[in-house]
Amino acid sequence: IPQAPTGYKSGFIGIIGRPNVGKSTLMNQLVGQKIAITSPVAQTTRNRLQGILTTPEAQLIFVDTPGIHKPHHQLGEVLVRNARIAIDSVDVILFVVDGAQPAGGGDRFIVDLLSRTENPVILGINKIDQQTDSQQLDRTYEELIAPYQWRIVKFSAFTKEGLDELLQLLVTHLEPGPYYYPPDLVTDQPERFIMGELIREQILLLTREEVPHSVAVTIDRVEEDTTITRVLATIHVERDSQKGILIGKGGTMLKAIGSAAREQMQKLIAGKVYLELFVKVQPKWRQSRFRLSELGYRV
Ligand code: GDP
Ligand code: K
Ligand code: MG
User: Fold this and answer.
1) Which ligand ends up closest to the CA of 45?
2) 61 alpha carbon, distance to own chain's centre
3) Which residues surround the ion ligand 3 when the cut-off is CB under 5 Å?
4) Number of domains in the chain
5) Is residue 69 within 8 Å of 107, Cβ to Cβ?
6) From which residue to which does the signal peptide run (predicted)?
7) Is residue 254 included in any domain, yes or no?
8) Domain of residue 225, residue span
9) How many whole angstroms from 94 Cα to the centroid of ligand 3?
10) Is 18 annotated as a binding residue?
């Protein structure tokens, strides 16, 4: 890693918020590449993952977290605990809310968590492209954080409106520091992990409610040829019925998942991809710490 110029700033920014407020979409836009998958389904993001933006004046390392919610099973507890750790292991907190909806109980729960941190907190009101009565909606968030001296910024992760102002504000909160990562790196995640996530994203987007939460994906083999990259992957589900849904009539669902994921992978590696998908039933993987860590989740 090269040495940063004098006066250079750097630091870690924790992106915290309820599920579906747009945390992962925001991180992708800020770093300029799709490194975190996004979908309208809560719990799309399962892992803590970092997106790195290196500008001439600062290196900003965004820590995307799973949305904070009340846990119902082993995986849920792991998710919330990781979010709590993230709050204190960063330099600045970006608390993201959905500005298209009034503040709710989920946001209040997070404000309570954040009230104990010594780190500076910025309230980011996202989805301003969808706000109908912005004054009314914003007021609910101003009231929510009234006891605290937190700065407020408004933006749309979707249209990028307001993101420059957000970046400027974030940089003012950073201390002088080194390059933590090489300036050309955009994420701490290995390409293989992102490939697995791109498959999981298509499952979230294409299948019914009950399937997505019990799915995990492993990349079993990646073979790079001069002209094409061959990827072998397995989708792990908990029940035979879920396997049936994933494969679909005559294999149509699996084919749809595969071809959409393949397209995304081609963008990721900027080259041709051949993707082969398998589906395997693995009862109760969500209850097992061992299985979770084996599948790549930090437990
Ligand atoms: P996360 O759970 O907080 O990481 O949220 P995601 O990034 O997965 O986004 C959840 C949903 O909100 C997705 O369908 C996104 O396309 C959508 N979304 C995110 N940001 C915006 C935004 O600024 N405007 C609009 N209209 N939709 C957004
Ligand atoms: K989501
Ligand atoms: Mg997310």
Assistant:
1) 3
2) 13
3) 23-24, 45
4) 2
5) no
6) none
7) yes
8) 191-294
9) 14
10) yes
Q: What is the pLDDT of residue 84?
A: 72
Tell me which amino acid residue 50 is. Answer: Q
For 197, the token pair is 């996530």
234 shares a domain with 147: no
Per-residue confidence (pLDDT) for residue 287, from 0 to 100: 66
* CB-based contact 192:236 (threshold 8 Å): no
Does residue 211 form part of some domain?
A: yes
In a domain, 130, yes or no: yes
Three-class DSSP category at 117: coil
Query: Which pLDDT score is estimated for 293?
Result: 63
177: DSSP letter: -
295 contacts: CB under 8 Å, gap ≥ 6: 216, 218, 236, 285
> What is the C-alpha end-to-end distance of the chain, expressed in Å?
29
- ipTM value: 0.99
Q: Is 119 annotated as a binding residue?
A: no
Nearest to 266 by CA among 217, 220, 227: 227
Instruction: Read off the tokens for 108.
Output: 């209040």
pLDDT along the chain (299 residues), means of 10: 95 93 96 92 82 97 81 65 77 97 92 89 98 96 96 98 98 97 94 94 87 86 94 94 95 97 95 97 72 59
Query: pTM of the entire structure?
Result: 0.89
Quote the pLDDT of residue 290: 59
Question: Which numbered atom of ligand 1 lies nearest the CA of 64?
Answer: 4
